Amino acid sequence: MATLEEAEFCFPKLLNSSCKKIMRPHSVSMLTYITLSSISVLTVTLNLMVIVSICHFKKLHTPTNLLLLSLAVSDFFVGLLIVFQIILIDGCWFLGDLMCSLYFLFDYVITSASVGTMVLISIDRYVAICFPFHYSTKVTVRSVFICVCVCWTCSFLYNCLILKDNFYQPGRYSSCYGECVIIINSIAGISDTIITFIIPITVIVVVYLKVFVVVMSQVRSVRPRVAAVTLQGSVKVNLKKSELKAARTLGVVVVVFLICACPYFCVTLTGGGTVFTASSVAFVMCLFYLNSCLNPLIYALFYPWFRKSVKLTFTLQILRPGSCDANIV
């Protein structure tokens, strides 16, 4: 009898008020644990490498890399938050009602800051490609730092406002002990989806489309002049490679983010005014978390300086005096 109670209830001693565990086959539970743990470790490791590289090497202290640093920091914390999602696999929360509310607050703040940083990165690339002569004067380390600080501050204040009702009396929306839920009314839910998903996605897609059009027009304008060059064949090949690389990178950035983020925000949009149980949206949340693991691969791994910095870090050469001045660009 005791074994049955322990298998079914989060708190076996509180049978009348304890939540029941989500019963799954052992193989499914193990696969879920391994998948989430792998995503968490990869997310933390990859983003930590980006953070160490940009902070350590002075040559990487540029406006664009500062945005990558902000994205890596938010994604690093997302990797840590996955640990709490692992705790919720069985549908039981053992850390208390206040920690439950804080968990959702940190989750919302970090993911919002990540989306905001992606918008800033798209704008940075737009200015760099479409207005190259004004880029160095308009986009500086100081201006980017201010934008990043504003992004994080607004994300924190905005999500505190959205979730404020859940902090007045933590746990008042829970129907049993061991449940971790929050309440977001329908108006706030729809507004949150518009502000943190629809508007950012629209900006990112429109900006990247404009960047793509500018890149294609530049390639077409260069081709007639390239035709007169003696090494016509080899130069054309290089242009085609750069053209395909630009198209592929922009496509990966937009498509991967849409694939990872759309299910999560669709659940949020259709679930306005209802109780959000962390265990019931585990799949879409994990898919959204996966984007934080892919971001360093998309934004940083394709850069040669990232591969060099990883090599210097793993070989402990960054511990040598003057290593921060190394030219890895």
Automatic annotation (TrEMBL):
<dbReference type="InterPro" id="IPR000276">
    <property type="entry name" value="GPCR_Rhodpsn"/>
</dbReference>
<keyword id="KW-0675">Receptor</keyword>
<dbReference type="GO" id="GO:0005886">
    <property type="term" value="C:plasma membrane"/>
</dbReference>
<comment type="similarity">
    <text>Belongs to the G-protein coupled receptor 1 family.</text>
</comment>
<keyword id="KW-0297">G-protein coupled receptor</keyword>
<feature type="transmembrane region" description="Helical">
    <location>
        <begin position="282"/>
        <end position="302"/>
    </location>
</feature>
<feature type="transmembrane region" description="Helical">
    <location>
        <begin position="30"/>
        <end position="54"/>
    </location>
</feature>
<dbReference type="Pfam" id="PF00001">
    <property type="entry name" value="7tm_1"/>
</dbReference>
<keyword id="KW-0812">Transmembrane</keyword>
<feature type="transmembrane region" description="Helical">
    <location>
        <begin position="250"/>
        <end position="276"/>
    </location>
</feature>
<feature type="transmembrane region" description="Helical">
    <location>
        <begin position="108"/>
        <end position="127"/>
    </location>
</feature>
<dbReference type="InterPro" id="IPR017452">
    <property type="entry name" value="GPCR_Rhodpsn_7TM"/>
</dbReference>
<feature type="transmembrane region" description="Helical">
    <location>
        <begin position="194"/>
        <end position="215"/>
    </location>
</feature>
<feature type="transmembrane region" description="Helical">
    <location>
        <begin position="66"/>
        <end position="88"/>
    </location>
</feature>
<keyword id="KW-0472">Membrane</keyword>
<protein>
    <submittedName>
        <fullName>Trace amine-associated receptor 13c-like</fullName>
    </submittedName>
</protein>
<dbReference type="GO" id="GO:0001594">
    <property type="term" value="F:trace-amine receptor activity"/>
</dbReference>
<feature type="domain" description="G-protein coupled receptors family 1 profile">
    <location>
        <begin position="46"/>
        <end position="299"/>
    </location>
</feature>
<keyword id="KW-1133">Transmembrane helix</keyword>
<keyword id="KW-1003">Cell membrane</keyword>
<feature type="transmembrane region" description="Helical">
    <location>
        <begin position="139"/>
        <end position="158"/>
    </location>
</feature>
<keyword id="KW-0807">Transducer</keyword>
<dbReference type="InterPro" id="IPR050569">
    <property type="entry name" value="TAAR"/>
</dbReference>
